[in-house]
Structures
1.
Amino acid sequence: MQNTIQKAIFSFYHVMPEKTEDLGGGFYGKVFLVSLPGCGQVAAKLYRFAGFARRESEQLKALAVHSLLRMPKVFGVVEAGMSGGAYDVLLMEYLEGVNAGVQDVRTIPEDARTRIRDQIVDNLIRLHETVNPEGFGPLDAKVFCPRWEDYYYPVANAIVKKARVLHKKGRLTDEILEVFERSFRRFDEVFSCPVKKASLIHGDYNTWNILLVPDRSRVGAVIDPYGCCWSDSEYDLYQLDNANGRDWGLLERYAAKKSLSPNFPAKRAFYELYTEISHYYDSGVAVIPELVQRQADALKHALSL
């Protein structure tokens, strides 16, 4: 990966990096802080799969237009074929801050907690109030789907097929596969309340992707969208409970400010399990059995399976 960074930086800036620091990663790539001679610092995100850097670049630009909170400025994308590196690289502004998802919320003063909670939630609501009148789908879709249910049904069907593959490989239990089969048969029930607006979603809006300013008094930035598109706004919401989101009270605050659909509990559990399994399949990362079992149990409970 260091070799890819060097090649990408030289291809884009025509200098060699002075220093690189591993900032961590996730399902699909890793992020590095790169120091450039006389040019400051940039964040370089390496993707394991072709096309992901270009896609996130467009997502960051689209979200930044509507976000109340700062998002990283995109400098450019260096594809593997352009630099001779092994991976596509997204070069963007490095935003210094402390990760909200690893904070002990109890150590933050109450007024700051309230401010941070409202900033996170108000920003998400602002994104969700950004609507595509043409319908649902990827940001770059040539034609959008007028009904969310018609757009999401084949997506969910494809995830059930992925679950079957993972089950066949011994990575999912019989019980979890049965939850998929039975819940998908009840798709029309889960999505019985029409989604009236195609909202802009972040796609991975949890506290791991929220940066606080160093003194932890307010939010500094939002980072790392995934699956940003025109969607059901409630697709974003299960993420509010991830990491330490429950400690921040994010979902409760969102629900206090914006009403949820009557079938939200079932949708939330459906989205969470299906999206999690899709990530395991697409990335090749090992399934975390305890986590998936909890999510399957939540969906069983929501649907009384």
2.
Amino acid sequence: MKLYFVRHGETEWNVRKKIQGSTDIPLNENGLQQAHRLAKELRQQTLDGKLHLVRVYTSPQLRAAETARLAADALQIPCVPCDGLREMDLGEWEGLNWDIIRESYGEVYTYWNEHRRYTHTPGGESYQEVVERTFAALSEILDREAQDVLAVTHSAVLMALRCYLAKLPFEEMVKRYKTKNAEVVVIPAEEIREAAERFCRGE
């Protein structure tokens, strides 16, 4: 079994480089086109016998839910909201861009950037908390499913998950695992299970 992860399509805040986090921003026109192309590609791979997805799980946030709905409709499979796949809550930083944050938050930003796994953004989550709820959600999905599924989620979720799977410092996530809008990332279920068990042991 494999999990096919997808980052949502583009939003206007992506274009303007504004941090979205828990803010519920819909897809822009380009994002809708990306989601339609993704749905078409997934359907074609299914018709060609290369893909056998049985369900779509999605973050409940608009940008992900819209992307997921188009894929599920094209594949004619159920689409299920999953709160654990929602984007990282970045608190006071939402609506700003990283240049403004570096200037306005100074030492707070510097400390967070250098210790980002366990440090909270002001009023927001830490990446450790994001990974914890993501593994909880994925473990439930894996207990429920026996065949491949699609999981539509967000950039910070995917970067944190992939960094943890690779046993790399979270400070390397952007350099190594920045995910494009509507990009597909495939991870075997067994890797997820093993990593979730490792996380539960506190590693």
3.
Amino acid sequence: MKAIKIIARQTLASYRKPSSLKIKESYPLPPYSTVIGMVHAACGFEEYVDMDISIQGNYYTRLNEMYTKYEFKPGFYDPKGRHSLKVPHKDMEKDTGIVQGPANIELLSEVKLLLHICPNDQNKIDYIYQKLKNPEEYLSLGRREDLLVMENVDKIDIIQEELKQDYELKQDAYIPEGYLKAGDCKSQATIYKLNKKYTVNPKTGVRFWEKQIYATHVSKGSVIQEGAQVITDGEEIIFLA
């Protein structure tokens, strides 16, 4: 089977946790849906293309930054000063009031990423490779302003094999639930419920998540034991989900 291997970097990035409100906290690595969205945007896909993703990487440090936050409720406007801005609403008689104010967002600095893209339809490999190798406009990952600099993009072969010796991870990684057997990896880690694929309700236009992945965030230096069944690209172990 073939996959696309990407080595990339970002000066600053934020991969927001949906549950964070007062402070927009960031995942330590981009979730699956974020990487898949980047690939779809680069390729101009208008319908969902099934693909498995492996996400690994590191960052230098975390920091907080101020940003302007806007909150609103369609069709509700308080003219006595509760709302600092207002905009007309096409489907309601009343304007929509907007509360404007400062808030905090968590950023990761000097992010290094190792990504593997494996589309279910292997005939799309060449097309995705060309679009990622020579994008029509700049690529981003996380927020629109979080530019993604591609250092290397390759087409590679991946195989499943049994580890002949212990393997020490060279960077942090998401390891999906069920990828390894109990005891195959020595690590103290956090388990995240990460979004992967969404569907839009045709009646309401509301997006809901159709597929979510339970994945363990395993740190650099963690050891995968000899004898574990893994997928490799010849240099790195990868964790497709």
4.
Amino acid sequence: MKQGMKIAVASGKGGTGKTTVAAALALSLTEAYLPSIREAPSLLAQPPLFLDCDVEAPNAHLFLNPDIRQEAPAVLLIPEVDETKCTYCGLCAQVCQYHAIAVVGKHVMVFPQLCHACGSCTLNCPENAIHEEPHSIGQLFRGQAAGEIDFAQGLLNVGEPMAVPVITQLKRWTGNPQNRVMILDSPPGASCPVVSTMQGADYVLLVTEPTPFGLHDLRLAVQVVEALHIPLGVVINRDGIGDERVETFCREHGLPVLMRIPFRREFAEAIARGQNLLEAAPERVGDFQEMFAAILDQIGWVPS
């Protein structure tokens, strides 16, 4: 029987309000906001764990204002070659799927930006001429947000090309939630960082908007989630600005629309001031709690 629950909040496109929804959902499950949900008491015995996995442009801290108390480096182990031992056989280059190492005549070239730190070159070197050195690619941060939420985020160093290792290390650093809810704020899009965030999730909440771009990218995001075989639901943000095609798509594909957030100027003004959605519209707390209960019902959650 599962001890924790992981909800990834994602979107096909940027700017749909994904982080707004993720932060509001986390806040709605804290004691400060109507601690009335008791469908899964063990899950709510502790405040949620919130991970901002959009490591290229993390912004959840703007809404949750965490007090950062821990920092740790995110590193990749990059091969270094001792050419006094190397026979230039080229086996390291042959086993590297990412072309991160090359043997050119009597010289070995390593390209850190291409290396995925898989260790194949080190393991396969017949002369034990390769060892690995840590290479900093980002930072991990952890603290308390809104007085209760256990908050963590990753930040990719400028110029580093791969976000996935930072996301992986962030998830590993914070561990698996025990008797609590983990909310993962995913990067936008449908690429490798999104897949890395979703992996291991019990549920994916897709935030979209009723526009042609919103529908186009929602289709892509749905394909990714379905390929991972994870249950999903949809939140339509800025409801009322477009047409009914997103609703039609969800209905035709059997996707539950769990919430509609209307397009209102006061919401935009509050977010621009750095307020979270529940500060701007405290009356919506119950909507987020009901959405959480609907997620539990949809996946048939059995409390421990």
